[in-house]
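Good morning N.,

You mentioned wanting to compare the apo and holo forms, so I went ahead and generated the holo version with zinc ion. This is what I fed in:
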Amino acid sequence: MSLHSPATLESEPRRIALLSDVHGNLPAFRAVLADIDAAKVDEVWCLGDVVGYGAQPDECVQLAAERCHLCLRGNHDLAALGRLDIAEFSPAAGAAARWTTQRLGGDARSFLEGLATQDETKPLGLYHASPRDPVWEYVLSTLLAGACMDAMEPRVGAVGHSHVALWFQRQDTGLPDAAPAPGGTERELSSGRWLVNPGAVGQPRDGDPRAAWLLLELPAWTAAWRRVKYPVDEAAAAIRGTDLPAVLADRLYYGQ
Ligand code: ZN
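and this is what came out, ligand included:
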């Protein structure tokens, strides 16, 4: 092997925590990081949207900068930097983006400025939203997941953005299989093509209000979806203490 060959699986970390969509929810982020610490992982990779919706964007960016070995940025991070037109955001998301833009400090801003929306240097592809459009496309149907697999160079990809923990798998051709991935779901990703979503840390939308993350073990390619209880009251009270839309506090209790 030449000194310049790309990193092999052997040189990659063995236990990886994948997380996404923290969205300024500091109590949820802290709880997930505590669970990650207990699981003794080698690296923490974040798929983006550290800010937007929640009341503690600066604190979450600081924690991401301290704790994540790799961090992407998502559409909400771009909106907070004024780099994305928020005309297509829902009213509550747009209001949150404006609030976050005004509130975000210089340190957080410069950290987010340095991030990319995808990374294909790891054993699996990492994208905030999708391999075809890492900023904006929601991968929630088998038809779309199949098109993403066609477009994706790596055999396995991880996406966030939809806030729904799930997996897609395609063995040969045709439409992939798919299923939601509630806490406790385990899959082996060692054959076929896969797209996995760990779910959201700070604003889950799959009906389970607990914060989500995914433990990936290489080279066995086992994936374990985790959920962590956190003090929703604290995150909701922090939102209600600002002029962010109150619905952003309410939805946390329902995981919607
Ligand atoms: Zn998001």
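The chain has eight helices and twelve strands.

Happy to go through it together on a call whenever suits you.

Best,
F.
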